[in-house]
Amino acid sequence: MSAIRFMDATQNDVEAIVDCISAAYAKARETIDDLPDVTAGIAQEIADHHVLLARIGERLVGVVIFARKNTAMKVINLAVSPKTQGQGIAAQLLAKVEDVAKDCDCSHMELRTHRLMLDTRAIYSHLGWVQTEVDANSVAMRKDL
């Protein structure tokens, strides 16, 4: 695998980010009826939050959207292109977020995912995240720093 480059997103990346997120969630959309649209408002996400991209060559292979909320770093969305899933890109993106969180003196990171996204939840658990709450179809997870 070629080297992964990480960079902050710009408004010029909106279409590529939407495509990456759509592809990453396509399989889940086939079986989860109430999965929210996580591609809407990407331009605003770039304006309001930190959006970090993972590229191999010129191809966008992953994206993470995150923001500080009090003493926590909140992961708003994480997506990896299906063609590159299983290669550690999600872990590397989350490690970058963790570095930022530590630099900001955050005490922990948090996120929410769909209860039925079992593979996603397993990845987070493998990376040290713990489930803190289940509310209908939403699962809250946390990683202390």
Helix content class: 25-40%
In the sheet with the most strands, the strands line up as: 1-2-3-4-5-7-6
Fraction of residues in β-strands = 35-45%
Order of helices and strands: EHHEEEHEHEE
Q: Please state the overall shape, judged from the principal axes of the Cα atoms.
A: globular
What is the radius of gyration? 14 Å
On the 0-100 scale, what is the average pLDDT? 95
Keywords:
globular, 4 helices, 145 residues, 7 strands, seven-stranded mixed β-sheet, alpha+beta
Structural features, described:
This protein has helices spanning 14-31, 42-48, 89-103, 118-126, and strands at 4-8, 50-56, 59-69, 72-80, 108-114, 130-135, 138-144. The radius of gyration is 14 Å and the shape is globular. The protein has four helices and seven strands, in the order βααβββαβαββ. By secondary structure, it is of the alpha+beta class. The model has no long low-confidence stretch (mean pLDDT 95). The longest helix is centred in the first third of the chain and has 18 residues, at 14-31. The chain has a seven-stranded mixed sheet, with helices on both faces. Strand 6 (130-135) and strand 7 (138-144) form a beta hairpin. It starts with a strand and ends with a strand.
Helices and strands, with pairings:
Blueprint: E1 4-8, H1 14-31, H2 42-48, E2 50-56, E3 59-69, E4 72-80, H3 89-103, E5 108-114, H4 118-126, E6 130-135, E7 138-144
Parallel strand pairs: 4-5
Antiparallel strand pairs: 1-2, 2-3, 3-4, 5-7, 6-7
Short description:
This protein is of the alpha+beta class and 145 residues long. It has four helices and seven strands, in the order βααβββαβαββ.
